[in-house]
TrEMBL record, chain A:
Domain called Methyltransferase type: residue spans: 61-141
Region listing for Disordered, in residue ranges: 186-238
Transferase among keywords: yes
Protein name: S-adenosyl-L-methionine-dependent methyltransferase
Residue stretches of biased makeup (Polar residues): 213-222
Pfam families: Methyltransf_11
TrEMBL record, chain B:
An MF annotation (GO) of this entry: protein heterodimerization activity
Domain of life: Eukaryota
Pfam families: Trm112p
SUPFAM superfamilies: Trm112p-like (SSF158997)
Spans annotated as Disordered: 65-89
Name this protein carries in UniProt: Trm112p-domain-containing protein
Organism placement in taxonomy: Eukaryota, Fungi, Dikarya, Ascomycota, Pezizomycotina
Family affiliation: Belongs to the TRM112 family.
GO biological process: rRNA (guanine-N7)-methylation; tRNA methylation
């Protein structure tokens, strides 16, 4: 899709995608915020390592910080989180005492070129067009220091299409634009779930979803297990909310990074996710 | 929003981001919360501070004037693992700690000098989402 040849269509399309994401991403996170937060407390190892290796006094951003679980991993850093969901930013701020504010990843409220690092973990897969996903990477890269010797670095994580061994079982031939259900566990809102046990794993709620995901109308049918893994107690069915995801193919994040004017210095696959460390090229 | 954070914030409208400083506080209500003092953290963070912007923010919010230029600290002595430094430096670092980390804006707005947009702050959280016509 060309971006500048037909500004009118492009604008209309941008608008359509924004409206779509508002309905299928932002609204959902605001509704599930307390429950979602209760399941997000363990840092992922590569993210933790990235943050721990930053020199003391480095200043960085967490774009789409959710409940802010990464903002305090290394107390010798100064980190500012932003998230599109007021509910989650407010949990990060009030419950966990972090600096978290409300902003869209495409319109970050930060001076360009000022930050030593940025992370964006499981966020940009919620943008519903290729242009917006590239734009998200560009927007994150713009905040980083550009000095040639020691440029700022961004660690970006996205959900992978290739996850044959996950309980979702997707592989490289599965549809990339999908709805993933969140089963809201009622009456269990702010408690941290117990560590998974065999018994609990068996109680997984599995849902069949027929999703017309992606605003361009690509239809995708996907079978997905719900997160989080918690015991289901109530007899009454828990409400299910579908979130839109774009699942990244191997190499796709790197290609987006290059298109966004970045350079990948390290990349990998970890637990159903693709990740990359990107510097401004 | 802590004052340290405000030092790393600007208008979310792309075309305003080359304007410095773009944002100023209006109708700000401040809060103070005591937090642990770490001289080392402040020493490490000081080089990253935009001093003219901090001076301006402090003035806007009614704090006494800051030094004309960013203070230069002497390297910490051997064995001074916490970066305490001389008595004079200690005092300065405490003041910075109080201003940057213990003071926050609880409500009010940030107003852009370039595009005029006002970003509301409530319960300590600023909202930088843009209305459609500014995107
Ligand atoms: C799967 S959660 C990940 C949260 C956190 N990074 C973590 O690792 O726990 C996705 C987050 O992205 C946020 N998000 C979605 N679209 C966004 C956008 N356009 N701008 C900023 N944040 C967004 C959601 O509100 C949600 O907090
Ligand atoms: Zn502006």
């Amino acid at each position: 899709m060309s971006t500048d040849s037909n500004p009118i269509t492009t604008e209309a399309e941008e608008k359509k995608e924004e409206v779509y994401e508002a309905e299928h991403v932002h609204k959902v996170y605001d509704i599930i915020a307390p429950h979602f937060s209760a399941t997000r407390y363990k840092p992922w190892p590569i993210v933790e390592r990235f943050l721990r290796e930053m020199p003391a006094g480095s200043v960085g951003l967490d774009v789409g910080c959710g409940n802010g679980k990464y903002l305090g991993v290394n107390p010798s850093l100064f980190m500012i989180g932003t998230d599109r969901s007021r509910g989650l930013a407010s949990i990060a701020n009030h419950e966990f005492k972090h600096e978290a504010h409300v902003a869209d990843a495409l319109d970050l409220p930060h001076p360009p070129g000022r930050f030593d690092f940025a992370i964006s973990i499981a966020v940009i897969h919620h943008f519903s067009s290729p242009e917006r996903r590239v734009q998200a990477v560009r927007s994150i890269l713009a905040t980083l220091r550009t000095d040639k010797e020691n440029p700022g670095r961004a660690l970006i994580y996205v959900w992978a299409l290739e996850q044959k061994n996950s309980r979702r079982g997707w592989d490289e031939n599965s549809p990339q634009d999908v709805f993933v259900p969140w089963v809201l566990q009622k009456g269990n809102k702010s408690k941290q779930p117990k560590e998974k046990s065999q018994k609990q794993a068996k109680n997984l709620v599995e849902t069949e979803v027929k999703a017309t995901a992606s605003p361009s109308g690509d239809s995708a049918q996907t079978r997905a297990a719900c997160e989080p893994e918690e015991e289901k107690k109530e007899a009454e069915p828990n409400p299910v909310y579908n979130r839109y995801y774009h699942l990244y193919k191997q190499g796709e994040l790197g290609a987006d990074a290059v298109e966004a004017g970045g350079k990948v210095i390290e990349a990998g696959y970890e637990k159903d996710n693709h990740w990359a460390i990107i510097i401004p090229a | 929003m802590k004052l340290l954070t405000a030092n790393f914030i600007t208008c979310s409208v792309k075309s305003c981001q080359s304007v410095t400083p773009a944002l100023s506080f209006r109708d700000a209500e401040l809060a103070r919360e005591e937090i642990d003092f770490s001289p080392l953290f402040l020493r490490n963070i000081l080089p990253r501070i935009d001093w003219p912007l901090l001076q301006r923010t402090a003035k806007e919010l009614g704090f006494p004037a800051l030094p004309e230029t960013k203070p230069e600290l002497s390297p910490i002595a051997e064995g001074d693992e916490e970066g305490v430094g001389s008595e004079e430096e200690q005092k300065l670092l405490k003041e910075l700690h109080s201003l940057l980390l213990e003071t926050s804006v609880q409500s009010g707005k940030l107003v852009c000098a370039n595009c005029g947009h006002e970003y509301p702050i409530s319960q300590g959280i600023a909202n930088f989402l843009l209305p459609n016509h500014l995107v």
